[in-house]
Amino acid sequence: MKLPSKSANLVCCVILMALAGTATALWSQTGGFAYATNCGSGCLGGIGSGNVSAYSIDGTTGALTEVPGSPFPAGANPFSVKVHPAGQFVYVANAGSGNVSAYRINAVTGALAESPGSPFPSGAASVSVAVDPRGRFAYVANGGAAAGKVSAFTINDITGALTPVPGSPFPAGSAPESITVDPTSQFVYVANELSNNVSAYTIDWATGALTEAPSSPFPAGTFPGSVRVDPAGQFLFVANSSSNNVSVFAIDGATGVLTEVAGSPFASGTDPFSVEIDPTDHFVYVANVLSNDVSAYTLDGAAGTLTEVAGSPFPAGERPRAVTVERTGQFAYVANLVSNNISEFAIDGATGALTEVGASPFPAGSAPSSAATTAGPPARCRANIHLPDNFVPIFDSIDYIVADSMGNRFVMGETTASKFGQLQSIPLPNMPNAMVCELVPLTSDFSAVAYVPTASERGGNYSMYPGLVLTDPATGVPFPNNMIPAQRLGSIWAWRIP
């Protein structure tokens, strides 16, 4: 790639970035990474205080290989694990020590290094952790027999450190067991095990604070133990562990209010304790602890109804407590609490049926209680490239970098001078050394010039560019007068598009 000469007339805020590290994007080498919490003595048959197992995923077979240094230390009795949507950080809720361990992911090996200040106090019985899809806030369900709470944190996007949100913790029902955030980052849902209901909240996009939705909490089945929202953000699924079924609710996109769909609840195996939806939004999977199997369903995307897949339920290990589906939707992983291992299944893309594959099951630590995988890169992105009025390109091909206001996140690519205007929307390349729209490690000998957005632009004001139409990726509707609301601003200066 060619770089513009230093004599190029860039009369504006430019930065010269010398970037260290020779890492390659994690999904360019493998199918990503998987992480499992081993809750030890805090779970049935477990021993020890617990830790976190880390694996690389074979991009072809889905097989798991434990990464160097695994398992990694955690707090006491880690119950729940979540991966930050940018693939940088892992968060673990430690039920026994009442805190959250935060880790940075090594993008090459998948190894974990604890973030500065970790673990972070999160309240008694921290049994479940969730991260909003924009990566700005983390939420923790604080269980226990008494009235439960939800602890909320802002996430430092450089270190992964957590800072309590003003007003945190927020009231919940009795014994919150599971927490999730919807795909639009507007709503938080909590399954309250002892009050047999689901609490719903709206998120303040500026602060991360929670406000309970109208009519919340909403009745569920008996002992709801797991809650998830489908990728389209239309439906909420609740695994009811004692009534042996799955409740499905339609989500009001404006308020977060829940309405149970026709035919709900749907029968499952015995003691369903985890529910997951595949990324294509076609299939739903439920881990049944006492029947040692996984129920599989097809999802009616219009009505929200579930139809059990032929051959379901599918045998798993002993006491399967959690199920997750990796980013491509090809493989499902099940954490088996008593057999101390992870089962891997290939997903039939046409039917949703599960077939155990390869060397499955794979060894884990003592009493694996939850599992999560890294997210993959978006299929396509576009970036608005800003240059000053008097920029003069001096090569036929021009390299560009899109950086945030701190110069920490960027994407890079190449275009031609004839197409590189003062304000140009450019499709970003899927380069082998670039996690498009995510953090990008580059080689140490690479330097490049990038235009830093102005203070006005960082505040969301693009009204000075009449030829630009900024479209809300959540709704497909242009932002009025090219003004992005403050609560919608992130630190990555590139929009994901369909």
What can you see in these coordinates?
The chain has 498 residues and is mainly beta. The protein folds into 2 domains: 14-23 and 378-496, no CATH class; 30-373, Methylamine Dehydrogenase, Chain H. The protein has 2 helices and 42 strands. The strands form 10 sheets. Strands 2, 3, 4, 5 and 36 form a 5-stranded antiparallel β-sheet that branches. Strands 6, 7, 8, 9 and 10 form a 5-stranded antiparallel β-sheet that branches. A hairpin with a 6-residue loop joins strand 23 and strand 24 (258-260). The longest helix has 4 residues, at 26-29.
Structure at a glance:
The chain is an all-beta fold and 498 residues long.
Structural descriptors:
498 residues; mainly beta; Methylamine Dehydrogenase, Chain H; five-stranded antiparallel beta sheet; 2% helix; disordered C terminus
Write the layout of secondary structure elements.
Layout: E1 14-18, H1 26-29, E2 33-38, E3 51-57, E4 64-66, E5 72-73, E6 78-83, E7 89-94, E8 99-105, E9 112-114, E10 120-121, E11 126-131, E12 137-142, E13 147-155, E14 162-164, E15 170-174, E16 176-181, E17 187-192, E18 197-203, E19 210-212, E20 218-219, E21 224-229, E22 235-240, E23 245-251, E24 258-260, E25 266-267, E26 272-277, E27 283-288, E28 293-299, E29 306-308, E30 314-315, E31 320-325, E32 331-336, E33 341-347, E34 354-356, E35 362-363, E36 368-373, E37 381-386, E38 397-403, E39 410-416, E40 423-427, E41 447-451, H2 455-458, E42 495-496
Antiparallel strand pairs: 1-41, 2-3, 2-36, 3-4, 3-5, 6-7, 7-8, 8-9, 8-10, 11-12, 12-13, 13-14, 13-15, 16-17, 17-18, 18-19, 18-20, 21-22, 22-23, 23-24, 23-25, 26-27, 27-28, 28-29, 28-30, 31-32, 32-33, 33-34, 33-35, 37-40, 37-42, 38-39
